[in-house]
Amino acid sequence: MLALPFAVSTAFAGDAPALSDEAKAASGKTYFERCAGCHGMLRKGATGKNLEPKNTSKLGNSRLEKIMSYGTEGGMPNFDDILSKDEIKNMAAYIQMPPDAPPEWGLTDMRGTWKLHVPVDQRPTKKMNNVNLNNIFSVTLRDAGEVALIDGDT
Fold first, then answer.
1. Which of 10, 57, 62, 120, CA to CA, is 20 to 30 A from 148?
2. Terminal CA-to-CA distance of the chain, rounded, Å?
3. Domain count, the chain
4. Taking a C-beta distance cutoff of 8 angstroms, is the pair 71, 77 a contact?
5. pLDDT tens digit string along 49-89?
6. In 28-145, which ranges are E strands?
7. Do the domain assignments include residue 45?
């Protein structure tokens, strides 16, 4: 038998670790809250790496758990003080599974949720403050689910 100087993973998406429905749902919620902002909802990558099963299954559970626990120099934060060992283990399995398709939510659905607070004919027609609108910045506070407006003049 030929000995290779490197490890070869035989794990593919079809051989991905299985999770109970409860563990998968919990991991999906955690992924959405903590990971999707960088890796994307479908795990195709954004500021973070692509986490599709074709990539994650090559690493295997042990390596993925270490990356999630200790982070990387490339910007991946460590989660060992945020998530339990079981949550990290489940997340390592979860990202080796094909991602669920996000629910469709089109313009018709969005319009159905709109609430009119100030009718158009009652809206101000002139500026009512002294804020320099050319120097206002918006920052999305993703984890808090808020938007902060920063006055660049002050």
1. 120
2. 71
3. 1
4. yes
5. 999 999 999 999 999 999 999 999 988 999 999 999 999 99
6. 136-141
7. yes
